[in-house]
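We emphasize that the prediction below concerns an isolated chain of 508 residues; any contacts that depend on oligomerization or on bound cofactors are therefore not represented. The input was used exactly as deposited, without trimming of termini.
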Amino acid sequence: MKNRSTRFLLAVPGAAALLCGCDIGRDYKRPDLDVPIAYRATRASESAAWPSADWWLGYQSPQLNTLIEQARTQNFDIAAAIARVRQADAQVRIAGASLLPDISGNGSGSWQHEGLGTGSSSRVGTSVKGGGSNASIDFHSYSAGLSATYELDFWGRYRATRQSAVASAMFSRFDQQTVALTVITNVANTWFTALSLVDRLNVARRNLADAEQTLAVVRGRFDAGTASQLDLAQQEALVAGERTLIPNFASLLEQELIALGILTGQPPERITVQPGTLTALALPLVASGLPSDLLARRPDVASAEAQLMAQNFSVTVARAAFFPNIQLTASGGYQAAALNKLITPGGALASLTEGLTLPIFDGGTLRGQLDLAKGRYDELLADYRKAVVQAFSDVDTALTAWRFTSEQETLQRLAVDAARRAAEIARAQMAAGTVDITTVLTAQTTLFSDEDTLVQVRLARAQALLNLYKAMGGGWQGAGQPVTEQFPGLTPGMIPGAVALPVGGNVR
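Result of the prediction step, given as a token string:
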């Protein structure tokens, strides 16, 4: 048996050398993509001015900075994403263990007591106590040893399993960055909406005050007999309508502040910030850059590719299941009747066995698993290509919205200025008795509507810029510690251009 096992071990390296050229897997290759030269909304020569990692500082809002910092360290979704990163890293260690032998130690000791009749004699390895009819004998046995089991990875099955786990760990990191970017932009969007509601509330209160002033004039004219009951009722209706807007805007403002609680990971009762005005918010400009550079700056695109990468290796694992598994098992140790004689050459034991398992008939299970893995790969390939096109679409949409909302805000300001002049003239002429209340009502309604619309257009412009930051990856870049350094044994050719990101946030 010993000679046979020795011959087998000597044959293994040769067999592995012959089979290394029969690797049934394939290293990951990035799919071909249709990348446009320029965005639909910009020129091909557009210069790149990518957002920085702390892009929100450009809005020059200390309260926004505080809220975002709280969200980065306390948000529950970010904390869950960080935990998923740790789980994925643990899966890499679990998958890598299959490439190493399993070694275990064992030890045992036994004792048996047996009574002896008269005339019984002692045996070897025993001790006799007493004599005559009350004699007894004790049996002792001790053993200690090691055993090792190793499955030869001829077909790259376990290597592919580990590569899949590494790609999944990369996906978890990219996903965590995507979650963080989404949370930060949601905080900013909620804050901008709160600012706009403060402005709309101020507009409504100012308009209510103007309408009540006009109502006082109409009442005076009515008392003097120069205004009709209809004139008075129309102005009273306008005042009542303006008054109803105030509690509505106040309610919406409170709801936005409450929403900041879940985003910043704290009860809404602890949100103490007081929104200012949207007009004081700085809106820094950002150029779009080139589409070819965008793919390295979107964590969601990187996570989609990491999923595809992991599934590529899963296909290799499914294909390797068709081939035989070869397992080596070795054990060695000592056994003796006395503890002080356990570790001696005469008590040494050793064994080596090899086994081969080959699937012959499984009712189509392996074929089904391979087809399932291939189908999942094709699904993720479509998802990856969709993520790429979606990235281009997001930038184009944000650029278009930014351009047209900027133009709209300029025109809306002109409309407000004109409506304000018209309202002032109408009120002055009504006081002089040269126009009726209908003209004043029309002018007031137009002014109130235009001022409220201007606030909403400002919000839409701020949101368009925010969406542009998000569409461009929010300052994220696919650069950092190479994956091959974090996960030894992974060669650069397996995952071209892949990098590993540190786990973000301070959540523990």
